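Repro case for the chain-ordering regression, as requested:
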Amino acid sequence: MKNIGLAIFIILLLVGCENNKSFKNSIDKAQISESDIEYFQNLVGDTVLFTVDQSGLRPDAISILNAQANWLKEKKFLPITIEGHADEQGTREYNLALGARRATAVREFLLAKGIEQDRISIVTYGKERPLRVCSNEECWSKNRRAVTVVGKKIVE
Amino acid sequence: MVNHIVLNFLKIISFTSILFINSSFVAAQKNDAPQLDMTVNRGVIKPISLAVPSFIEESGANSIISRELAKVISNNLDSTGLFKSIPQSAYVSMPLSFNTPVQFSDWSIINADVLVMGSVGLKPDGRLEVKFRLWDVSQQKEIGKGKQYFTNSESWRRISHKISDTIYTRVTGEGAYFDSRVVFVSETGPKDNRTKRLAIMDQDGANFRLLKHPPSLVIAPRFSPTTNKIIFTGYETGKPKVYLMDLSSEDITSLPELKGMSFAPRFSADGSQIVLSMTENGNTDIFINTLSTGVKRRLTTNNAIDTAPSFSPDGKSIVFESDRGGGQQLYIISTQGGDAKRISFGEGRYATPVWSPRGDLIAFTKIKEGKFHIGVMRVDGTKERLLTTSFLDEGPAWAPNGRVLMFFRETPGKAGAPSIYSIDISGRNLRKIKTSSFASDPNWSPILN
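-- result from build under test --
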């Protein structure tokens, strides 16, 4: 049992890594179909940002989440996992709880937009997985985030 | 009493520049307890001067072990900041036999206050026999009674720790803490993709070992009171969840009653329960779990983040952090439930409270004006003292005697990484613990059996 669990975990980990690859602005838009996960990650936007110590959705986050909801409605077969993160300026346990709040705020929004509940998993990483590594607001503002990972489902 | 002095150093030195305190050892023989002068000068504690000659080699003994026993004892006692070992090169004589009378003049001439005399021999059955006696040089009297240990030869280090504990306890009156281990998180790799593994070491950093565990993300291991188990948070399923590990087999078991995301577990002092936080619908509350029955009981019901719970040693109360009042503050609640009472009222945010094993103090992390501090306060929230400050100091852990804390300090920036430090609760003697990788989330075991 443990081995199966581990295998699933590793697969999820690999899927997660694949999804987290950053394509940024170098993408040739013409080569990506609207149905590709890369399209979701980079052109819809898989990440929303938060204010220090807050889990409320900002206007910039809401416009991204509206676009996420529209894309996800067309992809009914794809599960999603929302990963909540915090910057390094808090304590470990609090940041885990804060990341859970942020992931939940995104989940609630997507549910309200009609995304099916059983497609959505949430997980918090607290401050364990920073995207940017400098120790100032430039990086911290990018690390206070919730990432919608398409194709990933956490099986308990 | 020396213990009285150690505890009251700071209070005393703030009023007096030079002080001579007539003190007595805490020894088995109370009536003729030897006297020892300790000098406190302009805020600088004059440590007790200590001589630890290499242990006398008796039949079959290994000269490396005889030297190392003395070295580990010196290092332990020096690490407290209350003792200072005299280098062996300054000795005018070396003891030749365990039972010949001590030449006190040879030790008073090098200003030794305390002399540790030991011997080590190998028994025909392969066991080591280690003996030691502790002497007050100026009084020319033995402090307490001599002790004798038998052990297999691999365990000589633990004997050094036990002897160190006996010396420390007899001279300072404080509880033992050297014969103990630290479980922590070993970190390798770049800051944005750290590999975190469970690891264990002796309190002095020796015998570092990674625990058998898949290299998933792990967080904050903590010892059971019997020291044979740890509880920690791992991401095996992809979500943070609390797991138990048996330290003899290193097998991991999950707690099926925990749903969703769970983290921040700690044992009760009797080991029968754990307290932890669990997240349901985005809200984090505190639960108590009885290990024998698997029954979990909700302790807080609140829209705020309630986390980082820690049992009082008597098992009657829990201290935890909550942002129910706006920012993170410390609260105490009965293990039977009811209203939580806020105990922290200073500026800034308070987090990761840990109840001292003596029951008298609560250690915490404080975040104020962009700096992190480790601090202590009384259980009622009074007498707050900040012991450290840096870019990121976090996660205090009590030594078994409740007089020393370990915590981790992380440096800023791209190359930023954590290391484990210890500090006396007086605020003195900040020391970095040497580890072979980056290290965080230390937790100190009780004294080993």
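Ordering looks correct now. The longest helix of chain B spans residues 63-79.
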